[in-house]
Amino acid sequence: MSSRKAASESILAFIFIWVTNCVYALSPAPLSSHHFSSANKTPGESVQCIYEDRLGILWLGVESTGLVKYDGKTYTVYKNNPEDSTSITSNYPVKIIEDTDGFLWVATHNGLNRFDRHEGVFKRFLYDESDPASLSSNTVKDIIRDDSDRLWVATSNGVNIFQPEGENFLRLLHNPDATKPANDNEIGDLHIDSANNIWIGTMLNGLFLVPLETYSQPALSWALPLKSYSTTHHTGIRNWKNVLKDRGINAIRNITSSHPDTVWIASQSGLFYFLKKQNQFHHYQFQKTEQEKLNRSTFLSLLIDSEQNLWAGTSSDGLVIIDPGKEESDYLNAENYSSNQFKSNAIRDLMESRHGLVWIATKFGGLHYYDKRQKTFPVLRKAETPEEGLSMNLLCPSVKMLTVIYGWGPKAGVSTSTTAKKIHLPGSWQMANQEVFPATEWKVLQKTATGHFGLGRNAAL
């Protein structure tokens, strides 16, 4: 039989595969993550913060490394250069945000930076003792945007509101005494809720609320030093210092919300939630035996994902994912690395990407991500025999396109059934003069809801 005739009677398949971030498959577990840093060689293992910009580019703040850009293929590192005033002020970024003009703002422990990605230069904003319109402290903790796209900056000496027209700052909850500017005025976190109210969590002075109708007024009526806020000085800003002190809630590290009535608070003394209508704070209680220690943990990071699950990261006890509606929770702890691939219990930041991946920044454990699709589709793992599964535990979780089309011959067609079909490929495939797949028997697996196909064979895929 001629080679041409053999080819016409056999199956000729064209497979287009676009995959990213191959990692090892996980053993069965209620919840598991992928260690992005191992597969992609992230510069540095202590990731302080993560941000996805409008272009889908990931920006990382990596301790002792600097600001890191990841475009899906390569890393670009922006480091401090003491001889270059247009470089970033510190190699310790702790928060990244993008403004409406496309500039990136990077908070560090040595000032605030505005990055012009087109020019590749940073503009620095630093504390100046002689300028009351400068940043009130070089220790910057957080940045958010308000309803008018103004930037609010949390520092170790109060809050600073950026005034773009003069490129200076309006100060709030600060200590104006230049001899001791950071006298117990440290801000732990800022949060803007669905009604555009701004919540300010402090380390020693409780929780503040700046309503939209307040900060929409002229600033002279409400942007005051910390000592000006009291029960007798009405500014439209609320404070729960004494209430939190009585409840044992101290050192607020993070705030988030999604439900109009509920605000979640990560603190040094546990995880709390505030019910606005009741004006009451509640300590969230973990009931499962393996989670009881979380009732005493220091929580650092919070995220409410697109499915309304609450992700809460601790300083040293791992990560918990809570379904508030069902009061159920899953727990990721590095002590169970063999089952969840989690390498660090120190969770520094959490972010959900536009594609639904939840990114987890850790100290000493690099960057992880969780693909929520794996709760819907099973993970393929190494099997006892080749016919039952993959021949090794290599898995590419982020398959964006896997299409199988085969034709020319009596077995032509595309598998659309829910049962596996076998395809025999005669000889090795060649593409660009390189062997792609050796001769073997392949199985087209079940078609997914998105119209994609899985493909397996008796040797590794």
Automatic annotation (TrEMBL):
A Pfam family recorded for this sequence: Reg_prop
One function term, GO molecular function aspect: phosphorelay sensor kinase activity
SUPFAM superfamilies (alphabetical): Calcium-dependent phosphotriesterase
Gene3D superfamilies: YVTN repeat-like/Quinoprotein amine dehydrogenase
Keywords, ordered alphabetically: Kinase, Phosphoprotein, Transferase
PANTHER family: HYBRID SIGNAL TRANSDUCTION HISTIDINE KINASE C, TWO-COMPONENT HISTIDINE KINASE
Name this polypeptide is given: Two-component system sensor histidine kinase/response regulator, hybrid
